[in-house]
Design a protein that fits this description.
The complex is a heterodimer of chains A (about 425) and B (about 375). In chain A, strand 13, helix 13 and strand 14 form a beta-alpha-beta unit. In chain A, strands 4-3-2-1-5-6-7-8 form an eight-stranded parallel beta sheet, with helices on both faces. About 10% of the residues of chain A have low confidence. Chain A is of the alpha/beta class and about 425 residues long. Chain A contains 16 helices and 14 strands. Chain B is globular, with a radius of gyration of 21 Å. The chains are: A alpha/beta (about 425), B alpha/beta (about 375).
Chain lengths: ~425, ~375
């Protein structure tokens, strides 16, 4: 048992995915963030809807709502526990894809269908029970799914609530989105004692679209964890072969259509290039059709969803990573590409574009500009070299240690510096 | 008796167009005429015209005791002839006062000296002809782009009968220390005037107004203080430009109040004060391209540009040669700097492109097109 010193917090955190069972950037971000917070001496109980396979080896104490009373002890670094809540929300944890997941949940009469909000209610009830049994100083909740749980915990224990926004419904849907989700987001934003946004881009949206007081919103940028094996892959490519990579959900938000159209323009002048679309999503059939229609089949590959080591291998084989997202609150994949020494082109409609200088930037809908920049990176070797070398230096500043320090400031503010 | 040599370098590059990869082979519009004219107007109204006006006033008011050294790049001269006659006229009037020495540079404000001695020589000769034709002076003093100097530059310049050379303090000849003037080792006929780095920096800094006072307090003996500023500014809203204008408004008048202070042209300074002789036999290799070209983008762009020399000359087209020279303006390489908070900027130059990477892409696309037009292979449409 750790003796809590001055300024050390006991944090009750609500998320909905945590490694190794993750489907997207949120779990990765939660992992890095909690690890850095624990290293700074804080204790974290991390509540998720469910834990598949019972693997709870982690630096947090993972708690499932169903069995929160039995915190995992073995193999856990001190200070962090994770609690899963047993509920039909489980597919979140195993579904590959954040967006598909939301859609499958909302689909009526899908497996959970209109029951989703009832399930959230059940998660919230469990959260209330956890809040009464686990001592803590501050509640930290990630994204809309955690809002009912966080609010219930606050009601139960009377501790301040920090709402961490990684993505908003408007980003995911590309339009106004599901009204019930937007309502949950608004409730969370209004009731939170403080809001953390992953970028100025997201912070602006919170202030403008949800009418939140800008003084209540802090921006904390995500970081990226350097994996052990980056660059260690032997990649077999034909000499001179160039690979341009899209990696992400194939949904409207990620701008796959722009990527396909740009590919056609690039191939018209540089016919030897290979384009890879890695990921899955509702627009995938449409993309495959469009590629066939443009006659790019021989130069265009669809890999399906990649995970873990496959992602690293894919990066290692690529000469350029493109993120043409229509709306991206932060976007951690460009940082991962940079870690793998891959030059990056990203859309200005992303939070990560605010902080990166050593990448090429395009407007999300500007197919021509994207295509010309892809050509430039492939044609001018010095450009790729400079981007990669400067990018390496730039990445050094993106650490979870720094983010954890900023999160700590928020905790101090909401708890009155206790 | 302290002496001041005040040198101002006037130069403005043409604005490049956003030239996409898909323009290669289709468009020869490398320069943005409209943006270039607008930049010239801002440069003239916001800085160059008021600066000339102040210099003229100083020469009148102090009846020959105020002297100034000017270089006006060939690229700027050509632009003024097309679209800024009043500014050209101001320079002419300065030339007529007899108090201004026009210093020869490299016609296109290029870094040719780092890459090709023959092209360097041609551009120096070209600039000399331009000055002779416009201002009726045959330049005796030379200053390379950004004051770059080494043994090769000194030799070339001497062989072209220049007697004085203005040198950046970073490129100090061996044995010259920081004295303001010295005879170059093994090249006694050529006198180098060394720019005073610190005070020259203050010309364009926030303390410019008080510089006259400071100099008066610091010097009393027989020193030469060489102040030189590069002025590639976009206009009066540029802090460097407004500082220099404030300096001209206050400092020379303040210094000339002291009975023993004098301003000299570089030739006068060199004739009267040859300084110590640099130590011969020591190698003076200079800093080479590395000092100016710090990253992959700059080196690649410059190497690509100068690798085209043979094919451009071989193509035998005056128009293509002119285009190639215009693309040599050092500013285009400065825009590619990726270091520091002021990315892509050097000495307050306003950036026409969003990032050094964008600047590089447009520039390289242009070179690729030019290369194809002069008989090289573009590699774009196999």
């Amino acid at each position: 048992m750790r003796v809590l010193g001055a300024g050390v917090m006991r944090i009750l955190m609500f998320g909905w995915e945590f490694p190794p069972a993750i489907s997207g950037g949120l779990g990765t971000a939660c992992f890095g963030m909690t690890r850095a917070l624990v290293q700074r001496g804080h204790g974290i109980t991390f509540v998720v809807p469910a834990l598949p396979g019972g693997d709870r080896t982690s630096h947090v104490s993972l708690v499932a709502a169903s069995d929160f009373a039995a915190p995992a002890e073995e193999g856990l670094p001190a200070g962090l526990s994770v609690s899963p809540v047993e509920s039909p929300l489980r597919p979140y944890m195993t579904q590959a894809d954040y967006g598909i997941l939301r859609e499958s949940l909302l689909a009526s009469p899908g497996p959970y269908g209109s029951d989703l909000f009832a399930e959230l209610e059940r998660y919230a009830a469990a959260a209330g029970r956890i809040a009464r049994s686990v001592p803590f100083d501050v509640i930290h909740a990630h994204d809309w799914l955690s809002v009912p749980a966080a609010l219930r915990a606050r009601r139960a224990a009377g501790r301040p609530f920090v709402f961490h926004v990684h993505a908003l419904e408007a980003d995911r849907s590309g339009g106004s989105g599901d009204a019930r989700i937007v309502a949950l987001e608004r409730q969370g934003l209004l009731e939170a004692d403080h809001v953390i946004a992953v970028s100025r881009f997201t912070s602006r949206m919170i202030v403008e679209r949800y009418g939140i007081d800008p003084g209540k919103v802090s921006v904390v940028y995500n970081a990226v964890l350097r994996g052990g094996a980056v660059g260690a892959y032997g990649v077999s490519k034909r000499p001179g072969e160039k690979i341009v990579l899209f990696l992400g959900r194939i949904t409207h938000q990620k701008g796959p259509g722009v990527f396909v159209e740009a590919a056609a323009k690039v191939l018209a002048v540089l016919p030897g290039v290979t384009f890879v679309m890695a990921g899955s999503g509702d627009l995938m059939p449409q993309m495959i059709e469009r590629v066939a229609e443009l006659g790019l089949g021989s130069r265009f590959l669809f890999t399906g969803f990649l995970r873990g080591e496959e992602v690293e291998r894919m990066f290692a084989a690529s000469d350029l990573y493109v993120m043409p997202s229509v709306s991206e609150p932060f976007g951690i994949a460009p940082l991962e590409a940079m870690l793998a020494d891959v030059p990056v082109i990203l859309s200005r409609q992303s939070g990560v574009a605010e902080v990166l200088r050593h990448v090429l930037k395009v407007d999300a809908s500007d197919v021509d500009d994207l295509a010309q920049k892809i050509c430039a990176v492939l044609a001018y070797e010095a450009l790729a070299r400079e981007l990669v070398e400067r990018g390496r230096e730039e990445l050094a500043a993106f650490t979870w240690e720094r983010a954890a320090g900023q999160i700590e400031d928020v905790y101090r503010k909401v708890t009155g510096g206790q | 008796m302290p002496f001041i040599v005040l040198h101002l370098d006037f130069h403005l590059p043409l604005r490049l167009r956003a030239y996409g990869f898909f323009d290669i082979g289709l468009s020869q519009d490398y320069f943005d005429g409209g943006a270039s004219r607008a930049a010239l107007e801002r440069f003239a109204e916001g800085f160059a015209l008021p600066a000339c006006e102040r210099l003229l006033t100083l020469t009148r008011r102090h009846r020959g005791r105020f002297r100034v050294s000017l270089s006006v790049s060939g690229m700027l001269l050509e632009q003024m002839e097309k679209g800024q006659k009043p500014l050209l006229e101001s320079f002419r009037r300065l030339a007529d006062t007899g108090c201004a020495e026009f210093v020869c540079g490299v016609s296109h404000h290029s870094l040719a000296s780092l890459f090709s001695e023959t092209e360097f020589r041609r551009q120096v000769a070209l600039h000399r002809r331009m000055i002779r034709a416009r201002f009726g002076q045959t330049p005796r003093t030379f200053r390379n782009t950004a004051g770059i100097c080494d043994e090769g530059v000194a030799r070339t310049v001497r062989s072209m009968s220049f007697q004085t050379i203005l040198v950046e303090d970073a490129f100090l000849p061996p044995g010259c220390k920081t004295e303001a003037s010295c005879r170059l080792p093994g090249n006694r006929a050529l006198t180098a005037l060394i720019r005073h780095g610190r005070f020259s920096g203050e010309l364009t800094g926030p303390g410019a107004e008080a510089l006259g006072e400071r100099l008066a307090g610091e010097y009393g003996g027989n020193e030469i203080i060489c102040l030189a500023a590069d002025c590639p500014w976009s206009g009066g809203d540029d802090p460097g430009a407004s500082s220099l204008l404030r300096f001209l408004a206050t400092a020379p008048g303040r210094l000339l109040k002291e009975r023993n202070w004098r301003f000299l042209t570089p030739s006068e300074a060199a004739a009267g004060h040859r300084g110590a002789e640099g130590r011969a036999g020591r190698s003076w290799t200079g800093p080479g391209p590395a000092s100016r070209l710090e990253n992959h983008l700059q080196r690649d762009a410059a190497n690509t540009l100068y690798a085209m020399e043979g094919q451009v000359l071989g193509a035998g087209s005056r128009r293509l040669l002119g285009t190639w020279r215009a693309l040599q303006a050092s500013d285009y390489l400065d825009f590619l700097s990726t270091k520091g908070p002021s990315e892509g900027a050097r000495g307050g130059v306003s950036r026409p492109f969003a990032s050094p990477y964008d600047a590089y892409i447009h520039y390289m696309n242009i070179l690729r097109d030019l290369s194809a037009r002069t008989g090289g292979t573009s590699g774009v449409r196999p």
